[in-house]
Design a protein that fits this description.
It is built from 25 helices and 27 strands. The chain is an alpha+beta fold. A 7-stranded mixed β-sheet has the order 15-27-26-25-16-23-24, sandwiched between helices. A 6-stranded antiparallel β-sheet has the order 7-6-8-14-9-12, with no helix packed on it. Strands 17-22-21-20-19-18 form a 6-stranded antiparallel β-sheet, sandwiched between helices. Helix 3 packs antiparallel against helix 4 and helix 8 packs parallel to helix 25. It is elongated. About 50% of the residues are buried.
């Protein structure tokens, strides 16, 4: 589906707002000014609010759906660009458009470079050594330059003409004007013979003005074309590579699936079908080395599953019947039969990819400002170039020299790097994070991450596993420990209570057989009672024991030890005698202490926030290395604690499971949700961690900060480059060839710097 209903929880409200949106792939954009023009065109549709991203060549139009797609495409095409409804399952159109453009640029660049090098040699030699000239040498130079400034430079001229037809200008206008002006100023004196007023000393530093020097402007026109084509070619390739980083997550999905179906002959047949044929509930066979096609549960078989491509986890984990597997991961060495539960757009992989794309499509506030600036830069630069040329001429400088200075100003001021600074870094950073199991929802998270000084962590499900387990079993009577567990497991068999699940799991490991139980009775909130091997067995709290007159004298020390450790106390009594105490606890995650230490190493203060008891919270905090604890806080009041911590300008990040902590996540300056299952798109958070690894929290903050630093470096370079280069060009210290090369290299440098983010390795273990 290309037109979709996107539910995005607002930061200041727990309610979701349905937003109809249409995604379009756009082709033909050559700079940020083009993106701004397409954006204005789409905003003219009734009820539409468009955001166009030059780096991804994608438009997202809120307020319209598929029924309006034809009109939206027609308007974009009328503006001189190409458009196609974005299909998440098939990006052939956008890829083909990009590949065609790269191929065209490469072909033009090769031809331009092959002609420019000898042309520059010939024109310089013939301009400076009159004795080497031959009849018609000027025409030879012009004919050599003509394919360069026409066919090779056609992308710049075409964009300029298209924009002029619509009464607008772009970065290509500056390039096209520079090439045309240089070529025209060379051709007119050479062909019309009204005098050679060129000053090659300006270009070559020779300080001489020989006849025929106007031919050197052919060098400028040809060299400028070659440099601009080279810059545009490498920029386009780099942007495609950056887009590949973002789209790599979606590329993990299987294209075909092996579905097990029942035949009429009561036999099962495994048929290989396109992934679109898979439905929830289907039984799927996964062979060794194959990609798991959907989220689901393993029914049969065992395998080691490699999740590194989605979560960054380097070590495969074993799965067996009952295990949950995620689509996009790979069965490395085993055969699996699984039942698909979430397929297509509902799978965790699809939601991660969609969320990453939407995050990149959100335009940052600074990018909106940059786009607005670039909309005024082009006419301002043209005006400035004219003023500079006139000023130098009026000061007594030869017009040819003044004209060259004007061309330098025209070329050097192209703010292409400004338009690429933010979106390319955001695209690569979000794409890299997605491959590490860290989903950054947008630029807001990047800005907030740089100012965070306090991280608040929820306890259950965040610092702890969220699953009850047996911490200790103490025998207080004549029976050994395994017999105590055997009796408790018999009573709890069949119960779905968390305490019962923990006892049964422990008994499975330590008891050979669990007898059956009769006359099972539940005491809500207290425990269970049953007949086991002709004995009355009670399993429950000390309060239940007292109600049944069980003597707890011999169990008091074990009960006190469990209470001191903030563990849940389960007493086992047989025939009104306490025979053992089982301590149940929610265990801390293995990497919790390391994650807290990593946060402290980043200069971040850590706080534990939980609705659990003070004693239990202090125990977990001590194990994790957290000094500050807020316990017994109801979910509705967690946001109040966040706001209290935010006093005096403190920037607070909240880490929770994204469900009970939704309000607190929204109230924090930065919300990080530890996602589980396939509900990742519904979290009230800025960053979503889809790895079962608490170390991903400091890593998420580190990645967000690094992406933010890259954006700022890019913007600093782009602004600084233009601010420094303009006056240098205006005072005549920068010749047009160097200006063209510098402008092209500036854009390539910004994109290349952003691409460094794809090599970020955050794991320390």
């Amino acid at each position: 589906m290309t037109a979709e209903t996107v539910t995005t929880p607002p930061r200041d409200s727990a309610s979701a707002v349905a937003d109809i949106a249409l995604d379009l792939d756009i082709s033909g954009m050559t700079c940020a000014a083009c993106a701004r023009r397409v954006e204005r065109t789409l905003n003219q549709l009734d009820g539409a609010s468009a955001t166009v991203n030059y780096a991804t060549e994608r438009a997202r139009v809120h307020g319209i759906d598929d029924s309006d797609a034809a009109e939206a495409i027609a308007r974009v095409e009328k503006a001189g660009y190409g458009a196609h409804v974005h299909d998440e399952s098939d990006d052939t159109w956008s890829k083909r458009a990009t590949e065609n453009r790269i191929t065209s640029l490469r072909r033009r660049l090769v031809v331009s470079a092959l002609l420019t090098v000898p042309l520059m040699d010939i024109t310089i030699v013939l301009a400076l050594v009159p004795g080497w000239r031959f009849p018609g040498w000027e025409l030879v130079c012009v004919l050599a330059a003509l394919p360069i400034v026409t066919w090779a430079a056609w992308p710049f001229h075409r964009a300029t003409l298209r924009n002029l037809r619509h009464g607008s200008v772009s970065m290509d206008t500056l390039v096209s004007l520079g090439i045309a002006a240089s070529f025209g100023w060379a051709v007119l004196p050479l062909l019309l013979g009204f005098g050679d007023t060129g000053d090659p000393g300006f270009w070559l530093g020779f300080g001489m003005t020989p006849a025929g020097a106007s031919s050197i402007y052919l060098d400028v026109a040809a060299g400028m074309t070659t440099f601009q084509l080279a810059g545009r070619y490498f920029e386009t390739r780099s942007r495609r590579k950056a887009g590949d980083v973002l789209g790599a997550l979606g590329a993990l999905a299987a294209t075909h699936v092996r579905i097990r179906r029942d035949s009429d002959a009561s036999e099962t047949i495994d048929s290989v079908e396109p992934i679109a044929a898979l439905r929830s509930g289907d039984h799927v066979v996964v062979l060794p080395g194959e990609t798991i096609p959907a989220d689901g549960e393993v029914l049969d078989g065992m395998a080691a599953v490699d999740t590194s491509m989605m979560t960054g986890e380097p070590v495969p984990h074993d799965v067996s019947p009952g295990s949950v597997v995620t689509g996009g991961t790979v069965s490395t060495n085993g055969w699996l039969l699984m039942r698909a539960s979430s397929v297509g757009a509902h799978s965790q992989l699809a939601q991660m990819a969609a969320l990453a794309e939407r995050a990149q499509a959100r335009k940052a506030g600074v990018q909106t400002l940059v786009d607005r600036i670039t909309g005024y830069v082009v006419p301002a630069v043209i005006t400035l170039a004219v003023i500079v040329t006139i000023a130098w001429t009026l000061s007594g400088t030869p017009f040819t020299h003044a004209f060259g200075i004007g061309i330098s100003v025209l070329i050097i001021a192209c703010p292409c790097a400004l338009g690429l600074a933010t979106p390319t870094a955001l695209m690569v950073g979000i794409g890299r994070g997605a491959r590490l199991g860290i989903l950054i929802k947008g630029h807001d998270a990047l800005e907030a991450s740089g100012m965070i000084s306090t991280v608040v962590l929820d306890k259950t499900g965040t610092l702890t596993t969220g699953r009850m387990s047996v911490h200790a079993v103490t025998a207080t009577g004549a029976l050994p420990v395994h017999e105590v567990l055997r009796a408790a497991a018999a009573v709890e068999h069949g119960s779905e209570h968390a305490v019962a699940t923990a006892i049964l799991a422990e008994a499975k490991q330590r008891v050979a057989d669990v007898p059956g139980a009769r006359e099972v009775a539940a005491h809500p909130g207290l425990g269970m009672q049953a007949r086991v091997d002709e004995h009355d067995v009670l399993v429950g709290s000390p309060a239940l024991m007292r109600e049944h007159d069980v003597d707890l004298t011999r169990a008091e020390n074990a009960i006190d030890a469990a209470v001191d450790g903030a563990h849940t106390v389960v007493v086992v009594a047989i025939d009104a005698r306490a025979v053992g105490v089982i301590e149940i606890a929610d265990t801390i995650k293995p990497d919790a202490a390391e994650a807290v230490a990593a946060l402290r190493a980043q200069g971040i203060r850590t706080v534990l926030l939980t609705g659990d008891s003070e004693r239990a919270a202090r125990r977990i905090a001590a194990e994790a290395g957290i000094a500050e604890v807020h316990a017994e806080v109801r979910p509705a009041h967690k946001a109040d604690v966040i706001r209290e911590l935010q006093t005096n300008g403190t920037k607070v990040a909240m880490v929770g499971d994204g469900i009970n902590d939704a309000v607190a996540l929204a109230a924090a300056d930065l919300g990080l949700a530890i996602a589980s299952g396939t509900d990742i798109a519904m979290k009230s958070a800025d960053i979503i961690v889809v790895r079962d690894d608490l170390l991903a929290v400091p890593e998420a903050i580190a990645l967000a900060r690094r992406t933010r630093r890259t954006i700022r470096w890019n913007l600093g370079w782009a602004f600084g480059y233009n601010l420094a280069a303009l006056p240098i060009a205006a005072i005549g210290l920068l010749n047009p060839l160097i200006a063209a090369a510098a402008m092209s290299l500036s854009s390539v440098l910004v994109v290349s710097n952003s691409l460094r983010l794809q090599n970020v390795e955050l794991r320390r273990r």
